[in-house]
Task: inverse folding
């Protein structure tokens, strides 16, 4: 775990891709100190640990402003939803948040059925979510 | 078999007696009929053939080792030597010779001659059989031919004397005898049995062969040079005498050769012994590999065999436990990752001694073996850099071999052998220790695999048990209630799952129906599922309102559920009398309501259980009331139905809706079956990747007689 923030993103991408050449991928970006995770493919019990690792790395480096862009997320299972639940409390304790954006209707339906919109802020596009962080900050 | 032997022996004895009687009569009556003595000789030969057959039928029951054969021949020979010398010194046989014919002087002479003839003849037969066994040991193609030639020449030489008088000489006989002698010499080179003797046996063999050589030389001398014996034998039977002298000659050449050959084999005896034990140890170890389940027995065998074969002073075997995460590849070792060492078996050395021997500097030596995966030989421990401390510690180790157990390019163990002398291990020792290490690797690997598969089997049995237990958590019999038809099915994707449904009778006209889905799959889901069952059974009757029930169930669940897990639940209470259905939904798939042509999802708001407590959960939770019409069907299900997949495509809500509509006029079981059939044909009977549950309720109205189907 001894690595500097400078090469963090690069490390993250390669390690995740190498570990699992499967149907789920995470890309990570940073805009104005807000960290964006782009999810792609199937998020289920098999791939959930990848997302968990990504969240863990963010929290360990004390990044609490997180936006999860679900533009290319084609499926999410209950195990995938569980990952969000695992970190939301810790993130909010540190005055951060996990905001979700760009969900397809099908994915949104899964979130909605379980009442996740009551727990998470869900936006149509990423910039709205990022903006929301700064509204709060002000 | 027994009768035959009696006949053989009895026949032989009878012949001897008859011949003796004949001799006595011949002496007193001076019988002289031409050809009669030839018949007599043939009959005597027949007697010895019977003796041979008798012995042959006896010996088949047990097999003799060469050294035992040698021993028994020696005893027989020594007895014969004593007997022969006794006979010679007595000088009891007195013959007159006249026209090459021997005439005994008195009856005692006849008796002595018969005794000598029978004894020497029998001895010759016994010796011949033993010699034959020795010659034929590890026979080759030519062995049999050579021996048979010798026998043929001997018999021919003896046979040619049938028509001769005892003191006559004949050119043919001499020629045949010469050939027989050559045969004896040729056969004397057949000494393969010596090679396979152990060192101890070789020493015995040397002593035996020496005495045998002397014994046969004495016998040769007695038969040919001592007048008394010579004449006695000649009188008794010329052919037998020929046979006896030929066998004695063969005996002396053969055992002479055996003596010399054993002498030459003696220096290499030890090496041969070792090779033999190496081979048998490897063989044993090889067999062990496939048999042994007991790990400690296995490693003990490896070390004790190392000790035995290399004549090592001490030996021990260490198992290297690599860090689990690092076991994937060999690169980790060179990176200096730690590994644990466990001494699995030790011989003639204590744990403390091992630690002292391998203290400090040796750490690097062990590393060298683990990294290099090569056998290391230390010829002079006291002068080796790694072992400067050993001399001080007064540990009597002169030389040492360290062999790695390599499996899949990873060192899984190390086999050590030590000797007290310097330069104690030769190349073949090192080879054999390496071979042991290889065998041990296979054996250890094997025993680990067996262990693993046993463990797996155990887990499988546990899972099957869990499956059975979970199946019992689902309703075994669906409750009967007039006016309602119910059918349900739940199948886990794996052995156990997180789907749950239950039906309770709240009172005489109300039924509570719950369907739930625990997040995740498999064992963890199954645990929460059983917890939900407990909660439902405990409080469903206390809170007849579905919403109330949900709120309290959520409170109960929140205390124990992991924060990344949750349960979706849908709960309906149906009044079979009024047809009123009250529904609450905690994050679960909406209920499908089929009423005539209309099919719709009923989706009151509500969040999953175990996510949030208190007001947030209660605030979000709605309760819907619904008046059912006669023949209305309510379908509860889990996302295993809607998310059933064919490739990328999901079964989805629309197909479910359609399937419900198509079968709405049928009974509850028909609706259930139709939905499941549709799902299955959609997925093309691929194994479903999710748990799957359907509960169908059909309201048939007031007082209708119902036929519930299970």
Result:
């Amino acid at each position: 775990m001894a690595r500097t923030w400078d090469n963090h993103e690069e490390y993250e991408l390669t390690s995740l891709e190498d570990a699992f050449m499967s149907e789920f991928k995470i890309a990570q970006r940073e805009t104005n100190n807000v960290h964006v995770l782009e999810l792609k493919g199937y998020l289920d019990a098999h791939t959930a640990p990848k997302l968990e690792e990504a969240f863990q790395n963010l929290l360990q480096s004390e990044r609490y402003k997180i936006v999860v862009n679900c533009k290319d997320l084609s499926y999410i299972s209950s195990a995938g939803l569980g990952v969000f639940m695992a970190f939301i409390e810790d993130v909010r304790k540190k005055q951060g948040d996990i905001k979700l954006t760009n969900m397809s209707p099908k994915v949104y339906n899964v979130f909605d059925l379980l009442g996740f919109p009551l727990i998470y802020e869900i936006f149509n596009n990423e910039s709205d979510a990022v903006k929301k962080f700064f509204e709060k900050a002000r | 078999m027994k009768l035959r032997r009696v006949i053989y022996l009895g026949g032989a004895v009878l012949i001897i007696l008859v011949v003796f009687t004949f001799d006595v009569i011949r002496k007193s009556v001076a019988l002289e009929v031409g050809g009669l003595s030839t018949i007599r000789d043939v009959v005597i030969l027949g007697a010895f053939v019977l003796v041979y057959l008798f012995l042959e039928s006896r010996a088949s029951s047990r097999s003799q080792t060469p050294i035992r054969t040698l021993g028994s021949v020696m005893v027989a020979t020594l007895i014969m030597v004593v007997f022969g010398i006794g006979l010679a010194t007595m000088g009891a046989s007195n013959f007159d010779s006249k026209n090459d014919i021997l005439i005994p002087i008195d009856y005692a002479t006849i008796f002595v001659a018969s005794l000598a003839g029978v004894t020497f003849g029998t001895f010759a037969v016994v010796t011949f059989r033993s010699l034959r066994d020795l010659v034929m040991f590890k026979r080759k193609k030519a062995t049999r031919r050579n021996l048979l030639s010798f026998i043929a020449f001997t018999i021919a030489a003896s046979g040619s004397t049938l028509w001769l008088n005892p003191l006559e000489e004949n050119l043919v006989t001499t020629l045949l005898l010469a050939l027989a002698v050559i045969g004896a010499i040729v056969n004397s080179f057949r000494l393969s049995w010596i090679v396979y003797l152990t060192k101890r046996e070789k020493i015995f063999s040397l002593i035996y062969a020496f005495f045998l050589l002397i014994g046969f030389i004495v016998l040769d001398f007695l038969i040919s040079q001592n007048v008394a014996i010579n004449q006695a034998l000649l009188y008794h039977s010329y052919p037998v005498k020929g046979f006896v002298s030929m066998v004695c000659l063969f005996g002396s050449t053969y055992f002479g050769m055996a003596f010399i050959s054993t002498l030459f084999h003696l220096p290499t005896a030890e090496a041969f012994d070792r090779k033999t034990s190496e081979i048998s140890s490897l063989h044993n170890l090889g067999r062990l590999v496939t048999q042994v389940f007991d790990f400690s027995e296995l490693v003990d065998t490896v070390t004790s065999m190392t000790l035995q074969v290399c004549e090592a002073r001490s030996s021990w075997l260490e198992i290297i436990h690599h860090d689990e995460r690092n076991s994937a590849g060999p690169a980790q070792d060179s990176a200096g990752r730690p590994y644990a060492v466990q001494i699995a078996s030790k011989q003639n050395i204590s744990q403390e001694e091992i630690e002292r021997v391998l203290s400090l500097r040796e750490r690097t030596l062990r590393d060298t073996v683990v990294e290099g995966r090569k056998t290391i030989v230390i010829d002079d421990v006291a002068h080796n850099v790694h072992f400067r401390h050993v001399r001080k510690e007064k540990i009597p180790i002169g030389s040492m071999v360290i062999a790695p157990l390599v499996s899949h390019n990873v060192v899984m163990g190390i086999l050590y052998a030590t000797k007290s002398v310097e330069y104690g291990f030769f190349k073949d020792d090192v080879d054999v220790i390496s071979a042991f290490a290889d065998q041990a690797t296979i054996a250890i690997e094997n025993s680990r695999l067996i262990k693993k598969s046993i463990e797996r089997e155990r887990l499988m049995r546990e899972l099957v048990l869990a499956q059975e237990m979970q199946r019992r958590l689902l309703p075994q019999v669906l409750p009967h209630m007039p006016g309602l038809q119910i059918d349900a099915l739940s199948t886990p994707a794996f052995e156990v799952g997180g789907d749950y449904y239950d039906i309770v009778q709240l009172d005489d006209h109300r039924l509570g129906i719950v369907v739930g889905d625990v997040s995740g799959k498999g064992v963890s889901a199954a645990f929460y599922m059983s917890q939900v069952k407990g909660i439902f059974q405990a409080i469903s009757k206390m809170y007849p309102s579905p919403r109330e029930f949900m709120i309290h169930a959520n409170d109960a669940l929140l205390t124990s559920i992991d924060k990344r897990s949750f349960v979706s639940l849908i709960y309906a209470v149906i009044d079979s009398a009024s047809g009123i259905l009250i529904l609450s939904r905690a994050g679960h798939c909406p209920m499908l309501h089929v009423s005539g042509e209309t099919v719709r999802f009923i989706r009151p708001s509500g969040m999953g259980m175990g996510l949030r407590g208190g007001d947030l959960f209660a605030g979000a939770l709605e309760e819907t009331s619904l008046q059912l019409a006669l023949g209305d069907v309510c379908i509860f299900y889990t996302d295993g139905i809607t998310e059933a997949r064919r490739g990328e495509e999901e079964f989805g809500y629309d197909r479910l809706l359609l399937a419900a509509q198509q079968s709405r006029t049928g009974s509850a079981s028909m609706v259930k079956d139709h939905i499941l059939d549709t799902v299955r044909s959609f997925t093309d009977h691929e194994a479903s990747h999710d748990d799957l549950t359907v509960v169908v309720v059909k309201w048939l109205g007031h007082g209708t007689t119902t036929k519930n189907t299970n």
Q: What stands out?
A: The CA atoms of residues 38 and 69 of chain A lie 5 Å apart. The interface with chain B takes residues 45, 74-75, 77-79, 81-83, 85-86, 89, 106, 113-116, 118-119 of chain A (CB under 8 Å). The two ends of chain A are 34 Å apart (CA to CA). The helical segments of chain A are 8-19, 48-60, 78-93, 105-113, 126-137.
